[in-house]
Design brief:
9 strands
């Protein structure tokens, strides 16, 4: 009877986690309550997952990744990668994916994808590669990178904790590497080949190097003492990826010549995406002309927002200079966007054409539908929402990266990982200590460091309790016996392949962590019933959970789904053969590293 109840709860858990309309955290808490009401666990046992050391360490690891992002470590690496675009597009892609793989091997793959996404999107134009052909490999690479080391993904950590609870010992920091590293190398290589064969360019895709869909125009200037003075313009456009569209000298805009040497306080016209414009704010040797008028000591307290010129606005037809925008609103207009259709049908409204004629950005008349990126005190931004002449579209979440502390953040992160990996102290304590050091040294502020995905933390805590209930009730052993007859037909490798395939399929409606924890008891009991070492089956299940590329439902894949303008079928085309190949490789590689029979 207890086994039946446990299996029913598992089915209910799968259904709850599969329904998009129900938030993950709500489903997770419902599972915890259901485990207690069904009598499978006591309240203390049901809540033990939230106090588990692994859950605390996963939280700390996500927070530490926020520190790397806040100090601009990923962005700095991304910019350096543009150097390889000079040689070939292929060299750039390979180095970008290598960097993503390296970061995701020790940090949350979802966080790494989120950090590298704007870098890849902004760099794709400079590297002359369509973002559609870059972002899916980026997401898949971050998922494969998580199989290399223990801390690469939370799935590895929760499986490690579950194995320790069952007396099978934790997963070593590099224990997965002999299989995970070649798996990642092969998987990344095959992904690039499949992208070329199975995902050809389709009509309507943005052309590599084409202007972004929403192109902002702004004016930038070399800062006093800039290291770019006397350097060729190519060092700014190709080396740093700044989309320069013209050089303003003596009131006239000239085309950007790559070999032209830049002069002190050189004025440049930049046209690019919102990310491009914000990225210029981060550079030390160049800044936005309007941004430089904001006092340095108060910029951190300033907010950014996008506003539009509505049809009823009296500002239409008047320039920023005419209306004395800064004095009137207490804000600075950093950049302007005008819809391409409007520019094409009314040549006198063409931004670049007006600038080429000698007009400064502040002297160009505004038009209905124009978007402005404005910045200033938060109070002034809130007051702007009451204005009838401008419509506030929404705030722009931006915080200047703390580049001076980038090296310190890397040292703290690396030390934390090393201390936790070597078990010098509890991984949870090591993670919390690293988090506190990040805050204490100013690498990240307290508001940013806690911007972790709490849904993941709650879900893992609930699923650890579910795994305990499956083990305690004997449901895991019951399901294993249902799989056991396959051993006589397909052998131990075949049983391993079936269990790993089931893990991959379960990860579609659920999550990687949930699928691994549901199938782990089945894998362990299947091995024990066949008289084999359960570690091979357990670690095969762990690795298989990170090899589900069939749909864009995995968090890393979901992040690139919109920016890459993918369709659901695109993931099926590329992900299906890749997933099958990974399962075949695991079926043969896992027993080589973790033999079925004990020595």
């Amino acid at each position: 009877m207890t086994v039946t109840i446990a299996l029913v709860v598992v089915v209910i858990a799968i259904v709850l986690l599969s329904i998009d309309r129900i938030p993950t955290e709500v489903s997770s808490l419902a599972i915890v309550v259901l485990l207690v009401l069904s009598g499978l666990l006591t309240p203390r046992e049901a809540l033990s997952g939230f106090s588990n050391e692994t859950v605390v360490f996963i939280f700390a690891l996500l927070a530490l990744t926020q520190g790397l992002s806040a100090t601009g470590v990923m962005q700095l690496v991304g910019r350096r990668l543009l150097f390889f675009a000079r040689f070939s597009t292929r060299a750039f892609i390979v180095m970008l994916l290598a960097a993503v793989c390296a970061f995701s091997s020790v940090a949350s793959n979802t966080a790494v994808t989120a950090a590298f996404l704007p870098v890849a999107t902004a760099s794709s134009a400079q590297a002359k590669v369509a973002s559609r052909r870059l972002l899916m490999p980026l997401a898949f690479t971050s998922m494969l990178g998580g199989t290399i080391f223990l801390f690469g993904t939370s799935t590895n950590l929760v499986v490690s904790s579950a194995l320790e609870q069952r007396g099978l010992g934790r997963i070593g920091f590099t224990e997965l590497t002999p299989v995970g590293l070649p798996l990642a190398i092969i998987g990344i290589s095959v992904t690039l080949l499949l992208m070329r064969w199975l995902l050809p360019p389709r009509e309507g895709d943005p052309v590599a190097g084409a202007p972004p869909l929403r192109e902002y125009v702004t004016e930038a200037v070399l800062t006093p003492g800039s290291r770019l003075v006397g350097k060729p313009l190519r060092q700014l456009t190709e080396g740093l990826g700044v989309p320069v569209r013209g050089v303003v000298r003596e009131g006239i805009m000239r085309p950007p010549a790559p070999q032209e040497l830049m002069e002190p306080q050189e004025h440049l016209i930049i046209a690019g995406s919102l990310d491009d414009i914000l990225r210029v704010k981060d550079l030390r040797s160049i800044g936005l002309s309007a941004d430089l008028r904001i006092p340095e000591d108060s910029r951190q307290a300033h907010a950014l927002t996008e506003v539009s010129v509505p049809p009823t606005s009296a500002l239409a037809g008047r320039s920023l200079g005419d209306i004395r925008f800064a004095q009137r609103y207490g804000l600075v207009a950093l950049a302007i966007h005008r819809h391409p259709t409007l520019q094409g049908s009314h040549q006198h409204l063409n931004l670049m054409g007006s600038l080429a004629g000698g007009d400064a950005l502040k002297n160009i008349p505004l038009s209905v539908g124009d978007l402005l990126l404005v910045g200033g005190p938060e109070q002034r931004v809130r007051e702007l929402a009451r204005e009838e002449e401008l419509t506030v579209l929404g705030g722009v979440d931006y915080q200047r990266p703390r580049y001076r502390r980038a090296l310190l953040a890397v040292l703290i992160f690396a030390t934390t990982v090393a201390v936790a990996g070597l078990r010098v102290t509890s991984p949870a304590i090591a993670g919390l200590a690293g988090l506190l050091l990040m805050v204490a040294t100013g690498c990240v502020d307290t508001r940013t460091v806690f911007r972790v995905d709490w849904r993941v933390i709650i879900m893992i805590g609930a699923l650890l309790a579910l795994g305990l209930a499956v083990e305690k009730s004997g449901a895991g052993e019951f399901m294993a016996r249902a799989v056991l007859p396959l051993a006589g037909v397909v052998g131990p490798r075949g049983v391993l392949c079936v269990i790993m395939s089931a893990t991959v399929l379960l990860s579609i409606p659920m999550s990687n962590q949930a699928a691994a924890l549901v199938m782990l008891p089945v894998a362990i009991h299947s091995a024990m019933d066949m008289g084999l070492d359960p570690r091979a089956f357990a670690l095969g299940t762990c690795l298989a959970a990170s090899c589900s590329f069939l749909t864009p439902l995995e968090p890393s894949a979901a992040l690139v789904y919109g920016p890459g303008r993918y369709r659901f079928v695109d993931f099926l085309r590329v992900g299906t053969p890749l997933t099958v190949l990974m399962l075949v490789l695991l079926t043969f590689a896992v027993p080589l590293v973790w033999p079925f029979t004990r020595g």
